[in-house]
Amino acid sequence: MITLSEVAKRAQVTAATVSNVLRNREKVHPETAERVLKAIAELGYRPNLNARALKKGRSSTLALMLSNIANPFYPEFVLAAERAARSAGHFLLVCNTDDDAKVGQAYLNQIAGTFADGVLVMNTDIAFNEFCTSTMQSVPILLTMWERPEAPPALPCIAVDFARAGALAAAHLLELGHRDIGMLIGDGCGGLQNARSDGFLAVLRAAGIETDAAAVLQIRDSIDAGYAACMQLMANRPQLTAIFATNDLLAIGAAQALITLRRTVPDDVSVIGITDIQLAHQVHPALTTVAIQTAAVAELSVDRLIRLIQTPDQQPSMVLAPPPELVVRASTGPRRAASS
Amino acid sequence: MITLSEVAKRAQVTAATVSNVLRNREKVHPETAERVLKAIAELGYRPNLNARALKKGRSSTLALMLSNIANPFYPEFVLAAERAARSAGHFLLVCNTDDDAKVGQAYLNQIAGTFADGVLVMNTDIAFNEFCTSTMQSVPILLTMWERPEAPPALPCIAVDFARAGALAAAHLLELGHRDIGMLIGDGCGGLQNARSDGFLAVLRAAGIETDAAAVLQIRDSIDAGYAACMQLMANRPQLTAIFATNDLLAIGAAQALITLRRTVPDDVSVIGITDIQLAHQVHPALTTVAIQTAAVAELSVDRLIRLIQTPDQQPSMVLAPPPELVVRASTGPRRAASS
DNA sequence: CTGAAAGCGCTAACAT
DNA sequence: ATGTTAGCGCTTTCAG
Description:
homodimer; alpha/beta; 434 Repressor (Amino-terminal Domain); Rossmann fold; 6-stranded parallel sheet; 44% helix; 16% strand; elongated; DNA-binding; transcription (chains A, B)
């Protein structure tokens, strides 16, 4: 490994001067700088980031903790977060907790304050949140994708108004004339996605529609689960003309179940989800959904975390992400007079 | 931040002893050790990994460079790689190059040898490979998912026999009686997926079947592109009874196009892909595909990279991953006598 | 404008 | 069994 002082020797200066050249051309004589640059190039020198991090007390690395990157939602977030981090001069360390709070704690213990200058935590359960709170003193932690803006956590966070997302979905279905609506509730990654379903149900109730328990299923977060649950729903309640799912994976599974059942989407049954993952528009029929603008949330989160690193220790404050927006595609349509 | 010497002071020993306690209980008196452990707990001490890395010259971090994590194939690889790395005591730094060799080079320049002890590189183009070769001297680099076992690169690599995967797909379709077969070739991430298509075509040719150019489309890697291309294919050649795609994303898009065209899969047209991404079995009809055993390849890659770090500088050697395997699901079936 | 020197927190000889 | 010492490669005053 080539070190600073080897470069210095070759350029006939000291390490300090080389270090200066590396990020402060002001104080160095152009001619000297050129000599140094030449030596750097010739030797193929690359700074040792560990030494730099040790000296400066900052590593220019952000950590992102998520439960399972195999869920298609996360890669989209990661992509955007990584771009944002990179363009701000930071690396992004992706930490999979495998849905295991123990793994999450171990990660946090190891990286917090040394490998990572700050940590972004998504979708955790409460036990883990408490743990975060205790380690927050040594390193900034930002919760992101917080689903309950009305109940801010004890940490800084970026909240998304998922209740509103549910409400938008409900309004859309109501407007299309649907009244018999089935509901699929996913299990997020630390509790059911109840903010979404509550928002949805509130609108229905305001319109005088009661949804009985038989039309509601709580399931794991996956296309498979959505498929199976939709099968069950349609068996229980063949008269349903629409299905609302708390996320797109479930909705996609539901749509496929309907196709298997020879029910046309959306002519026989409409389907709507939440999130707007990439798959949503790639599937046929393309999924109507409520977009929560993942990339924007990711960027906001990274920005805010970096700011937290620079000026830490304020009150735990919550920032609301841009509001969810309805994206109408091909999976929803008007209720037909006589269905199936 | 709590340091070793603060712990030492509280436990009335020196930093060296604390350091010993931290990973070598042999040499230290149990009573002392207990005192140290107590101090560590009370102070909430956590070792500074940068200091450790600087001292030891190793950071216990692996980097994984990939083109775009939004492609569903990558998260599955990442998940497995991260688990393997973690269980071997390493972190995994995921680096998105955004399909841009420049970004890849910048990453490599920064992290190689300091933040990462070794680098896993997937699916790169040749220009980047050359760059890797030059930086390989300072840090072990392992190419993974190499598609051409018959042409080993100048770096250590894990190769997957994709030609064989194509051949298996061809054999399967032939066995089902298909002769009019369309082909969708994706663009990997640095060149077309030709190993796959070559393996496929070789088997067809050996069976006396010529595939003419009109039945072959070269496209970008996505469900959308597969959908559009399949539409075009069926317009050109309505008599096709099967479609082979060089990856599952394309195949899934193709299947959806067929459904849109009111062609039943697999009764009218069979569809087969390569890879066996999670989506393949979640989609309906479930996709027949040739599994390349992503998780196994990821684990193998991590193992081999770690070994390379421990004993570097051998000849660039190639390791062949476990062979691809046909996974028959619902999207392929026998050719019907009279098709559409 | 450049050099000398100290030290970030940790580890690993080598002493005791 | 524990302490002493000397850096790892870099940044950063402070002198010159």
